[in-house]
Design a protein that fits this description.
- This protein is of the alpha+beta class.
- Helix content is 36%, strand content 27%.
- Strands 1, 2, 8, 9, 10 and 11 form a six-stranded antiparallel beta sheet that branches. It has a six-stranded mixed beta sheet with strand order 7-6-3-4-5-12.
């Protein structure tokens, strides 16, 4: 079974503002993010962007109305080739990344370990997929990665695909040597105005939205990452003049749903020739890219898989 961590220090907190047609979500990650990052041996720059993508993926995905699997990924990058975050509606997350190690080391040397996003992700696309239980077909949005930060890229994504006015702040802790990895993201989205609203009411909505974005801009990295400051208190501190209503939080759990039966089904899908090519020292070894769990198949188990193909 894939790895799982069941501590509850990481949460997603939805809320809405009573003085405006605005909904929001706050995610704060520590132990669960730390578990995911430390299960890999990625370079620091990869960990930084993967941490941000995980936080963004959670506030983008999880809500109380739709059950299913959500995936946020960056793909087709020149050096950082791919990053993938899977999030279930139950709050289970897993993530992984792929990159060109030689090209990354060269870029880090050339930029004194401070490469820009466009240098790392040149030609990349941002892809969001929702596989919902209530829908027959998957929803997918694909947008060119555009911006100097992942937050900028997500604002571009919302303008191109979701077309909801959106404000987003995302932060990560940069000094990972002390007490682990942490990240946080806070998102605001303006709901569509009623067609029955007057011009004056629409203008008031716009003024309210500008005020909300201004308040969002006052949040500090320290506040977002401070585990001693509760989500309720943080949101009240920020939006108390906007009649903030905080909804029940959802726990976020680092969990991979790989398993031996799933791996067996993947192996069965390969040709007999491909399966035999995978055999090394009379066994097949398969490691999950998300959690690094390794599944070994001996001679007799391989023969069972080959028999399964014939049925």
């Amino acid at each position: 079974m894939g790895s799982s961590l069941t501590m509850t220090s990481d949460t997603l907190t939805p809320f809405y503002l009573g003085k405006a047609q605005v909904r929001g979500k706050l995610v704060r990650l520590s132990d669960q993010l730390d578990h995911i990052i430390k299960s890999h041996s990625y370079p620091s720059i990869v960990n930084h962007y993967l941490s941000e993508l995980i936080a963004i993926g959670i506030v983008l995905s999880i809500n109380t109305k739709n059950n299913g699997l959500f995936t946020l990924q960056i793909t087709n990058g020149k050096i950082l080739k791919m990053m993938v975050v899977d999030i279930t509606s139950e709050g289970e997350i897993r993530a992984c990344a792929k990159w060109d190690n030689e090209a990354l080391e060269k870029l880090l040397m050339e930029t004194n370990n401070a490469p820009g996003l466009t240098q790392l992700f040149e030609n990349a696309f941002l892809v969001f997929t929702a596989d919902l239980d209530s829908q027959v077909e998957k929803y997918q949005a694909i947008v060119e990665l555009s911006g100097s930060t992942l937050s900028d890229c997500m604002h571009h994504f919302f303008r191109q695909s979701d077309q909801l006015a959106t404000g987003l702040v995302v932060v990560t802790k940069s000094d990972y040597s002390l007490d682990g990895y942490s990240a946080a993201a806070l998102i605001l989205q303006k709901l569509p105005s009623s067609s029955e609203q007057t011009e004056t009411e629409n203008e008031q909505d716009e003024d309210d939205w500008i005020t909300n974005l201004s308040l969002l801009g006052t949040i500090t990295k320290k506040e977002l990452l401070d585990q001693n400051l509760s989500a309720d208190n943080l949101l009240y501190r920020l939006f108390h003049e906007r009649e903030v209503h905080v909804l029940p939080s959802k726990n976020i759990v680092a969990k991979c749903y790989c398993s031996r039966p799933r791996i067996e089904q993947i192996l069965v899908s390969f040709s007999e020739e491909d399966i035999k090519d995978m055999i090394l020292d009379n066994q097949i070894s398969v490691t999950c890219e998300f959690c690094n769990e390794t599944y070994l198949f001996n001679d007799s188990q391989i023969n069972e898989i080959l028999e399964e193909k014939k049925r």
